[in-house]
Specification:
Layout (H helix, E strand, L loop, with lengths): L11 H20 L7 E5 L7 H5 L4 E6 L2 H4 L9 E3 L12 E7 L8 H11 E12 L18 H12 L16 H10 L4 E8 L15 H5 L2 E8 L1
Parallel strand pairs: 1-2, 1-4, 2-3, 4-5
Antiparallel strand pairs: 5-7, 6-7
């Protein structure tokens, strides 16, 4: 999985194809119920690379994406694509069996408003999964590499000078510094609506999941935090 990160910009189909298979299996494992006929909402689904992986599990896949250019970037058939904002999901309360987002939180200026909306549209007993890249981890700068440790704006300037164009994920516009502490604090604030049943680093083996219990260390070594909640 980590090897495929090298191809996010140059070969997105390869990168997101690998992410899709891993995500669908992770969602199925944590949902704890058969995925046959489950209605799955992918918040920030982009071009829809995840559709086939979920449909292979028998799920009904729906993707919501605010950016029309991003929706059509992969040239895929949008069988269940809806244009809409993650902060104002165009779906009824308690309408989804599973609601998830993968590597979206760091690209929105109001991530926890989006998380609240994800809980709202999920049915009682359903599953909410939020997976996102940690700013202080080695992949926090995305295509800007480790230069983000010198500051997001400085990293963007260096990238632009080197490549002749700004990065796709522009700090302060489409890339924001989110932390594990923020996600865990949001989950605690949402406890009356959804129970936190898992919080772990997505790309590390289970024997290292204890990292997420150590403030500071989790921000650097955790790389990516997954929050799994069960709607009350």
């Amino acid at each position: 999985m980590l090897n495929d990160f090298r191809f996010e910009q140059t070969d997105p189909a390869r990168f997101y194809g690998a992410i899709a298979i891993d995500t669908a299996q992770m969602v199925a494992d944590w949902h704890g119920a058969r995925m046959d006929d489950a209605v799955v909402l992918d918040v920030g689904g982009g071009p829809g690379y995840f559709a086939d992986a979920f449909e292979l599990l028998g799920a009904h896949y729906i993707s919501v994406e605010p950016d029309p250019a991003e929706m059509h970037a992969g040239g895929l058939d949008h069988r269940g694509g809806v244009r809409g904002s993650g902060q104002h999901l165009p779906f009824a309360d308690d309408s989804m069996d599973v609601t998830f987002s993968s590597n979206v939180v760091e690209h929105t200026s109001a991530p926890w408003a989006m998380a609240d909306e994800m809980v709202r549209v999920t049915r009682p007993g359903g599953t909410v999964i939020i997976s996102y890249t940690l700013w202080w981890g080695p992949f926090g700068g995305h295509e800007m590499g480790l230069t983000h440790y010198a500051g997001g704006h400085r990293a963007a300037r260096w990238y632009t000078r080197r490549h002749g164009h700004p990065p796709k994920n522009l700090y302060g516009t489409s890339l924001f510094p989110v932390t594990a502490a923020q996600g865990l604090a949001w989950a605690d604030s949402a406890a009356s609506r959804a129970e936190l049943v898992g919080a772990f680093p997505r790309y590390l083996p289970r024997r290292l999941w204890w990292i997420m219990r150590v403030p500071g260390l989790r921000e650097v070594l955790g790389t990516n935090l997954v929050l799994v909640l069960r709607k009350r």
